[in-house]
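User: I'm putting together notes for a lab meeting next week and I want to include a structural view of one of the chains we've been expressing. I don't have a solved structure, so I'd like a prediction I can at least talk through. The sequence is below, exactly as it appears in our construct file.
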Amino acid sequence: MSTLSELLRDAAALVLPPVCPVCGTRLMPGERGLCTLCRLTAPLTGYCGEADNPVLRKFWGLVPVVRASAFLYYVRDSGWRRMIHGFKYRGAWLVARTMGEWYGECLAESGLYGGVDAVVASRLTHGIIMVVRKDYATRSSVEEAMRQLKHVNAKVLGFVMTHSEGQGGKYKSGYTGEYGYAGAKKGSLK
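Assistant: Thanks for the context. Below is the predicted structure for the 190-residue chain, given as structure tokens.
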């Protein structure tokens, strides 16, 4: 990290100090996303290291699953629940990324998931509805998501745009079977 970006991060931390999304305490230098105490006391399931676990057993007879796992136990009215709600409902994506990296490390360390390239939910569903937030999702991020979905032969059933005031502006609407910005070539986001 460059000296300038470190200075900017430190200046921002003076005004809005980073806090742990679980317990609310201020993060110390070197702590990423969560404080050390919350990491040490996290309600981890440990399933990522067990080939046969309760999550995998829930799928038996329903769908063909080779591996399954869960990262955390659900703890009602806890900071963990509030943290998960933060990235599910309030857009705290940096926390979600930190949790995903932590879980990914656990899965990699277990050795059970070495041959897994991706989790493909489209095989378990009839299709996918892409949700795009107006003035938040970039054209390139939507194009990349579409590329990845096409790569796994996912059927895109449609698009939903959130945080929109209604019709008008540069966005198309209606049941055309196409997606994109007004004035773009058919089937293109440009």
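A couple of points you could mention at the meeting. The chain has a mean pLDDT of 76. The chain has six helices and two strands.

User: Perfect, that's what I needed.
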